[in-house]
Amino acid sequence: MKIIPIFFTFDNNYVMPAAVAFYSLLNKARKNIAYRMYVLHSDITQENQKLLSDITGRFPDSTLEFIDTKGFLKDEWQNGNFDGHNKRNQFTRDAIVRCFAAKFFPQYDKIVYSDVDIVIQDDISELLDVDLEDKYFAGVKNPFSKWLPGELSHLKPEHYEMLKSSYIAGGIWVMNLKKIREDNLEQRMLEIINDETIIKRWPDQDIMNIACENKVGFLPLNYISYPYLLEVLQKQDFVSDYSREELFNSIISPKIIHYAAVKPWNNCSIDYAINWWTIFKYLNLPFVTKVKFVGKNILQERSKKYKKLYKLFLGLFIFALITELIIILIKI
User: Is 70 exposed, middle or buried (0-12, 13-18, 19+ CB in 10 A)?
Assistant: First the structure.
């Protein structure tokens, strides 16, 4: 049995997507794979911990452990220059705690980190076999930074030049904890967090990318396939460091679907939404009915749309058939 350590960081508000992510991970695991799952958190209730543990319990080879971070980096999060997080409430402190995995997992030399706004489509245990050599971590290079300069425009000029073609996105990481400890990289991360002149618009990503100074490895793009990538590819001005083949492969054969922007529990009309909702519905979880109601409403609207299209095509077909019959009768 091959053991794969993997951890997550999220708060009580993200238990619902975590349930879907956990099930998709374990359901796709090969028979000889056992995941050791960990959640770094500060506020997940006992009730929700049990709910997630019950899901993991369906797969006896794997385990789930909750680790209370007990206010770790609380002051740094409140005082740090994290552009926009107070205005949009887009991130929480958990976003920077994940950078310090070496502190929380002294028993491992290497570990996988994953977001929970995902659906895993295929076994990902091979990630632990990625040869990091002297690299601090590996992840998927941001495919949009070349097309959308604003993604990295908040960085200092020297950081931008260093990272413009190598910036690692969020979603899934393989972290070289041994190398991070050896080089005391966490001290460098704290310096970046406390440096008010460094804007951390994407908290965890900015901290890791700047601290690692390009000592990073790259995973294939299909490890964080984006639902909106197909739409973006149709834009004439789109450019990327990835080849067209790599971009299309991530759409056709995704290992992980990453709902990085629009979430399927908020909008069922996005691509791959059905993948998330299928698992959510199967799990039959006791979450607030409002969430189900939102999904139901969107699905109903989609159904109405398809019914209108069906009626339109049926009407056109009947019209064409009648026209053809009239022409035949006239000829007779």
Answer: exposed
Distances (CA, A) of 236 to 98, 231, 239, 244: 37, 11, 9, 13
Locate 224 and state its tokens. Answer: 């964080």
Do residues 61 and 34 make contact, with C-beta atoms less than 8 angstroms apart? yes
Residues pairing with 257 in the sheet: 119, 225
Rg (the chain; Cα; Å) = 23
Using CA atoms, how far apart are residues 118 and 212, in angstroms rounded to an integer?
25
Note whether 194 and 96 are within 8 A (CB).
no
The CA angle 271-275-276, to the nearest 5 degrees, is 100
Torsion of CA 275, 276, 282, 286, to 10 degrees: -170
Q: How far is CA 281 from the centre of its chain?
A: 20
Round to whole Å and give the CA distance between 182 and 157: 29
- Decide: helix, strand or coil at residue 116: coil
The pTM of this model reads: 0.84
DSSP-based three-state secondary structure for 11: coil
Residues 280-290: tens digit of each pLDDT: 999 988 764 44
**pLDDT tens, residue by residue, 82-100:** 876 554 457 889 999 999 9
CA distances from 3 to 27, 39, 63, 140, 296 (A): 16, 17, 10, 23, 39
* For range 45-73, the mean pLDDT: 96
